[in-house]
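User: Could you go from structure to sequence for me? I need the amino acid at each position, not a summary. C-alpha cells:
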C-alpha cells in the first residue's frame, strides 16, 4: 500500500447522488485516513449541458486514481441507456471491474410467517409453517463485465413490422472463472466457507453449462469450501423465506443485478445496500457506489439514506488496505442503526460514533 495519501476520484452524479456522497466524504474525513479527493462532473446534468457522457480524456485521468467513489447517476430527461451504457458500464468494462461485490446483513429475528403476511389459512397451509428466521449475512459476487450486459446484439429491419431485436449473453471461460475464483477465495476467509452458484442451468443450457463447469473446476481446488447450486427463481424464494442458508452467492451479471435488489429489500431496504466494483488484479482503480439510483423524486428533501454510500466508503477503505478504519466505519453505522433523521443528520450520527 502506498505511504502517500490515497487519491480518490469522486463522482457525485445526479439526484441524491451528491447528497449521499457528501455524507460518505464526511465519514471518510472523520476516520483520519490520509486521502485526497478530486470531484468529477459526470452524469445526467453534464450530458444535458454538453452532450458528453464520459470523454476519453476523463477516463484516462480516472485511471490514475487509487479508487473512485460514485453517488448515483441518472436524470429523468436523459433517455434510457445513455448514462447506463455510456458511463456506468463503460467504467466497469474499461477499468476491468470484473467483480461486483454486494454484502447484505440483517439481524436474526424470528417472525411468524403466516401472521406477518396476513396470509389466509389456505395460503398459509401451502407455505412452510412456523416461525421464520429473517437473519442473514451474505455477500453476492456478481460478474460485472459480461453476460447480457456486454452489449452483444442489435436490430434488423428496425421500425418495420418485421423488426427483430437480439440481445445475447456473453460468457467467456476466462471471465466466468476469474469471478468464481474470487467467490471461493472470499468464502475461504469467512466462517461458514460456503458458496452457492445461482443460475438457470435448466434453461440456459449453454451459458449455464459453462458456469457450472467453471464452478466445479474452481471448487475442486478449494476442498474446504462447501458448495450448493440454486436456480435463480428458487433463489428468489429462499432469499425471502430462508436467506440464512446463503454465505457467498456467485452469479452472472443480470441475475446478480436482480437478486441484489431483492436482497437489499429483505435486509433493511435499498438505503443500506452498498457495492464495490472491484478490479481484484489492481490494474486500475476500483469503484464504490450504493446499489440505489439517483431517486430524483426525493432530491433536496433530506430523505435520502446515506448509509449505503457510507458503507460503500467502508468497502473502499478496506480495499485500499485500511481495514481498521473500515471496521470503525462499519461499527459506527451499526451503532447508528436506529437513528432517524435527515441525510446529513444520519451522516453526523455516524461521524459522532467513529
Ligand atoms: C446497478 C444498476 C446498474 C446495473 C444500471 C444502472 C446500469 O442497476 O448497479 O445495479 O444494472 O448494473
Ligand atoms: Mn441494479
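Assistant: Here is the amino acid at each position, in order:
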Amino acid at each position: 500500500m502506498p505511504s502517500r495519501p490515497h487519491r480518490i476520484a469522486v463522482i457525485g452524479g445526479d439526484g441524491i447522488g451528491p447528497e449521499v456522497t457528501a455524507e460518505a466524504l464526511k465519514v471518510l474525513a472523520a476516520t483520519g485516513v490520509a486521502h485526497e479527493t478530486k470531484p468529477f462532473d459526470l452524469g445526467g446534468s453534464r450530458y444535458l449541458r454538453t452532450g458528453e457522457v464520459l470523454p476519453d480524456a476523463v477516463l484516462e485521468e480516472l485511471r490514475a486514481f487509487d479508487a473512485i467513489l460514485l453517488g448515483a447517476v441518472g436524470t429523468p430527461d436523459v433517455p434510457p441507456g445513455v448514462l447506463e451504457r455510456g458511463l456506468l458500464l463503460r467504467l466497469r468494462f474499461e477499468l476491468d471491474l470484473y467483480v461486483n461485490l454486494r454484502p447484505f446483513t440483517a439481524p436474526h429475528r424470528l417472525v411468524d410467517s403466516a401472521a406477518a403476511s396476513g396470509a389466509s389459512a389456505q395460503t398459509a397451509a401451502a407455505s412452510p409453517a412456523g416461525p421464520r428466521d429473517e437473519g442473514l449475512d451474505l455477500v453476492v459476487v456478481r460478474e460485472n463485465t459480461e453476460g447480457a450486459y456486454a452489449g452483444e446484439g442489435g436490430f434488423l429491419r428496425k421500425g418495420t413490422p418485421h423488426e427483430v431485436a437480439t440481445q445475447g449473453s456473453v460468457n467467456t471461460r476466462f471471465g466466468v472463472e476469474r469471478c468464481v475464483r474470487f467467490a471461493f477465495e472470499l468464502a475461504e476467509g469467512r466462517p461458514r466457507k460456503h458458496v452457492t452458484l445461482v443460475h438457470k442451468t435448466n434453461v440456459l443450457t449453454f451459458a449455464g453449462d459453462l458456469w457450472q463447469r467453471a464452478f466445479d473446476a474452481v471448487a475442486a481446488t478449494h476442498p474446504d469450501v462447501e458448495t450448493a447450486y440454486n436456480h435463480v427463481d428458487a433463489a428468489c424464494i429462499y432469499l425471502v423465506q430462508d436467506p440464512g442458508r446463503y454465505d457467498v452467492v456467485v452469479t452472472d451479471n443480470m441475475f446478480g443485478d436482480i437478486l441484489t435488489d431483492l436482497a437489499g429489500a429483505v435486509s433493511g431496504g435499498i438505503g443500506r445496500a452498498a457495492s464495490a466494483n472491484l478490479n481484484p488484479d489492481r490494474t486500475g482503480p476500483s469503484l464504490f457506489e450504493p446499489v440505489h439510483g439517483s431517486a430524483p423524486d426525493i432530491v433536496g428533501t433530506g430523505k435520502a439514506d446515506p448509509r449505503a454510500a457510507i458503507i460503500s466508503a467502508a468497502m473502499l477503505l478496506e480495499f485500499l488496505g485500511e481495514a481498521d478504519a473500515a471496521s470503525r466505519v462499519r461499527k459506527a453505522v451499526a451503532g447508528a442503526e436506529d437513528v432517524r433523521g435527515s441525510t446529513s443528520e444520519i451522516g453526523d450520527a455516524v461521524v459522532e460514533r467513529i
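One structural detail worth keeping in mind: The chain has a mean pLDDT of 94.
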